[in-house]
Amino acid sequence: MLRRKSSASSNPPPSYTSDAASSAPPPAFTDFPDSYTVNKQSGILFVDNGDLQAHLKLLAAFNALRQKVEAGCKGVAAELEPKARWTVFLYVAVWRMELWLEQRAREPAASPYPPLDVLLIWHSARLNPLRFAEDRIRIHGDAIRLTDDQLKRIIACIDAKATYNPPESAFASWEAHTSQTFDPILHFEETQGRPLVVEGAEYFAPWVTREGTGYAQQGFLASVTLSSGNKLAVTHESLGASRLAEDLVACQAKNDARASLAGTVVSTISCPSSPAESAQAVRVRSAVQKSKKLGGSVAEVNKLCKYSLQGAQAVLRTMVLTGRDITNILSRYTRGEPFSLDLAMAALRQGSFIQKMHDLGWLDLDRFSDDDTILSRCVARYHAFLDLISSAPSSFFVPTLDIDLAWHTHQLKSSYISDTMRVIGRAVDHDDKVAEGTLANGFDITAQAWRARFGVPYSTCGCPLPSQPPLSRFANRLGLSSSNTAYPSGPIAPSDADADATHPSEHNSLVVVGHPAAERARQQRQKELDSRRVRDAKALAKDVKNGKLPEYERVKREKQLERSNDHAFAFFAPFPIVPIYGPLGFPAGAGGCAASDGNQVCPPSTNIQCGTASNAQCGAGASAGGCGSTSCPPTSGFSSCASATHGGGSSSACGSSSACGGSGGGGGCGGGGGGGGCGGGGGGC
């Protein structure tokens, strides 16, 4: 909800609608308020135009880095296709982030300026706020935290050409600690692989091999001789399972109050300062301590779990844990890095959003130097979006690009979780992996709820919106009545100047290619959208014939129809956005597996379980690019966890205690998202 300062009563904003008798369009709205009202709390301003411009500047630097890598460079990835090269680069960057965290843990006063590739990975981690918070509390402490002031100083080092120029002390500090080149491109041309430690046994894993078994490839496989003399086939899954074994052993020690399992400490209603203050973490730890099956060493637990998440699942089931406990835990251990999600794949998915910002022209650093009205509208619409979330806690709302930019910007602030808890009553998570059909349905609901609450269209990008049901349909859910329009429409009314920015944000959409259920659901959505276009054209013709429209309104609606006819609808990706790659990153046949900018795409003929941590997973090692960590039940009829979310198709999607990615009652992958959805209810992106 928006609230104008005291001048509001004497100078009301122009209405979005206008009399047919008037042929002149209403003046463009420019008198934006200084603060907003969210959930009846006034004086709220979580982000402003300057924050958005700073964030866009950071995204411009990330985009320039990606363009350089994809343009070609020397080293292990020189022969790869550009997008495959970028994927390998991101896995190298994740390793460098591990080194950066080690440096900051040892030297808290060291330079806060990370290399640009590390900053990119940190940024992607930050956009998963609850997992980021839990990783900070459980593992990294303040080492992973950049204060708001530090981030401002880092962004100030980006020049007008989107080049990152930190102080010389940053170079010296980094190189002294890591013996690596600070420049990410130069390092990428030099690096060959990374060291790994499994049960005390050290191993050097190459990034890329001709056989496709490198650490940054989808078929990672290595043979390691353990201290026992036994050989172990190491995969990303076995590394993740071993990390879980380490935490299980730590939980058995009664003198370590910080010991906990990932997925048990932070929730939407609780973000404690330590695991010992989390009732859920304490309960799960107590169940681990009471277990009679666990051994006393990591090697013993690994053997019991068979170095696999499926084996770990069986062990966890012997404890007094709920199905939700088990799936939340397992989904955090799909890989060996000390993070609760696959950060390389998170960065890859985020890259598609950055590309959208580039396509809008918003990464041009001079774009808003003379007129930042569009950013003011972003800020207004974001606060209205939060107000909408607060009005319907059980609903799943999908942001547009402009709102998502402001949302991402807010998440970069240290106060994000406390802000949303204070005004909404819970921490609003940002799920970056959601089934395409769930997003499409969620966007329709958002558009209808937005129009009902605020009285203006949610989007004018060209995607035809659903018909508006009677207001009473939303009254109970949104707390509205026929006489209760939420607030003046001016600040959030759509404008032709930023129509493209009101396109649904779909960087987090999980796409399934070639699966019959997913294809049928996609075809049904296409038919529905086509019928909406016909509906809109007929409505315009009728209004023109009846003389109901002023000239400016007629022209505006005709432009809207033109955009619709030429527009690429959201949540439609019948073919992979990224080419399907073979072992070394060269294009492969259609029987392969791919990552659609980090969103998993699996044809059913592969019989590969996307989203599992198996060494045959899809998407250049993208174990976390799908839903969850364990395979979907074979009876579901789906060949992959990603397709089990099915985009609104079959009702046999994962959702049991052994399902993918969350407890998801009603068939959802990802916690709370009933109806076959990925992602929790209540405003997840």
Please state the oligomeric state of the protein chains shown: single chain
Major β-sheet, in short?
Answer: 2 strands, antiparallel
The fraction of residues in strands falls at 5-15%
Query: What general form does the structure show?
Result: globular
Sheet/helix structural class: mainly alpha
How do the strands of the widest beta sheet line up side by side? 1-2
| Overall residue-averaged pLDDT value | 77
Q: Which percent range fits the helix content?
A: 40-55%
Region (Disordered): 1-26
Biased composition (Low complexity): 16-26
Pfam family, one: GRDP-like
InterPro entries: GRDP-like (IPR009836)
Describe this structure as you would to a colleague.
- With 685 residues, this protein is mostly helical.
- It is built from 21 helices and 10 strands.
- The protein has helices at 49-71, 82-106, 116-126, 129-140, 148-155, 168-178, 184-190, 236-252, 279-290, 298-305, 309-317, 323-330, 343-360, 373-391, 401-411, 416-424, 436-454, 472-478, 516-545, 551-566, 641-644; strands spanning 36-38, 41-44, 193-198, 201-206, 222-225, 231-234, 434-435, 509-510, 594-596, 599-601.
- It has a two-stranded antiparallel sheet with strand order 1-2. Strands 3-4 form a two-stranded antiparallel sheet.
- Strand 9 (594-596) and strand 10 (599-601) form a beta hairpin.
- Helix 2 packs across helix 3 and helix 19 packs antiparallel against helix 20 (551-566).
- The longest helix is centred in the C-terminal third of the chain and has 30 residues, at 516-545.
- The model is unreliable at 2-21, 480-485 and 571-685 (pLDDT under 50).
